[in-house]
Amino acid sequence: MCLSIPSKVVSIDTEQNVATVDTMGVQRTAGLDLMEEGSVAIGDYVLLHIGFIMNKIDEEDALESLRVYQEILEKLDEEERRQMVLDDDNCPSREAP
Amino acid sequence: MSSLQLKDLYDGFRDPDVIKGYQKVIATDAQKLSRTINIMEVCGGHTHTIMKYGILQLLPENIKFVHGPGCPVCIMPKERIDHAYVLSQQPNVILVTLGDMIKVPGSNGSLQDARSKGSDVRFVYSPLDCLKIAKENPDKTVIFFAIGFETTTPMTAALLDTVIKEDIPNILLHLNHVTVPEPMRALISDEACIIDAFLGPSHVSVISGSKIYEEFPRDWGKPVVVSGFEPVDVMQSISMIVKQFIENRCELEVEYHRAVSREGNLKAQAMVDKYFQKVDFRWRGLGDIPQSGLGLRAEYDKYNAEKIYDAVLPKEEIDDHKLCICGDILKGKASPPQCSIFGTACKPTSPVGSCMVSSEGACSAYYKYGNLI
Ligand code: SF4
Ligand code: SF4
């Protein structure tokens, strides 16, 4: 029930205090009542929950997480390669004449 | 530096390779643990992710999960649902609530049943829908049966704010909002409780900030990692918890830092504070927990359906069937398949106890994804 979908702000109506957001191609309006005035801009990533924007997603922080994941993958690749080399060194068939 | 795309926010946090990567990291680290650790995911959103992505099967033997009380639908005691049922039967009333409440049975049946018997019950996506319904039906009283944790409470407050500012005469509230730290405290105060660490709810923390969990590592010796809802978020958070144990740390950490700050959304908190105050609440499966709910402040009595319809609302407390072991499940003393009526008398279509009620409840998640276990 508290699930909330990342969306991107497409336009802002200051009169009605609502924003139009894009959630993977679907456009919807969302109330800005819970956000400080002027804190949400076009192009911002936000979390939408039951008709309201409840906060912004920090772009830098999201990118930082994605970078950490990339590093983990690279490190594992490296370990796997090293493991393969080690396995190769220990190849039992090599001991055969 | 590359810039963020909306797609990254979905795919990046569900990447199966990254999940496998964390699986290896966790497996390696877990070998250094001196004992099994039991992690409670407080929130049903996490239960859902854990079951849906088969995360339990990716974890080593010595990391276990205890599924928490984290779904506001599951923890709604029957007498509150009976309130909604009775209110919907009052003359000239339209009862409005969020879609999640549709099938939850009270002692006379669910709100869906009330509707099929002629009550005007409407299930909406947003509390804002009440405004439209009230304007279209000026001769009716619209009662919003409000549910949810900290995540959802500000939206109810925003509805009341609009009702007052626009002087809308025909909207009342019936509040059933609850808060997360109180049940966490209640669970770990029980001596039999086996919880070693918590996975903190994502969106509750977006509103309330991570600060609401500071007491758990500090006063109770239980690490907390606030986690996002995506599977990579959950795997990373588990990894962070394991690292705390092997490094002998006991801290509050935030994995979901792209959306959670220490302070949270202060404007939303102020809005809640203006209209609501802490009250005692009886939780289905857990019983009375002091100061774990929110009620309307006395100065807003004229919007309080519970006060206005006091004479017709039932007062008696109704417990679940005695075979139901939800209370023990929530404390980690039992798991759903251990219940004697799990999957037989108690199913998502005919829930007997709270954990089977919403798709986020532990029994319901086991029922749906149980073949994976
Ligand atoms: S309603 Fe929100 S807090 Fe509750 S289980 Fe669902 S997602 Fe978690
Ligand atoms: S299966 Fe049903 S009755 Fe048994 S513990 Fe779960 S909710 Fe309660």
UniProtKB/TrEMBL annotation, chain A:
GO terms for molecular function: carbon dioxide binding; iron ion binding. Pfam families: HupF_HypC. It comes from the Bacteria. SUPFAM superfamilies: HupF/HypC-like. One of its GO terms (biological process) is protein maturation. InterPro entries: Hydrogenase_HupF/HypC. Belongs to the HupF/HypC family. This is Hydrogenase assembly chaperone hypC/hupF.
TrEMBL record, chain B:
This is Hydrogenase expression/formation protein HypD. Keywords: Iron, Metal-binding. One of its GO terms (biological process) is protein maturation. It holds the Pfam family HypD. Gene3D superfamilies: 6.10.20.100, HypD, alpha/beta domain 1. Belongs to the HypD family. GO terms for molecular function: 4 iron, 4 sulfur cluster binding; carbon monoxide binding; iron ion binding. InterPro entries: Hyd_form_HypD, HypD_1, HypD_2_sf.
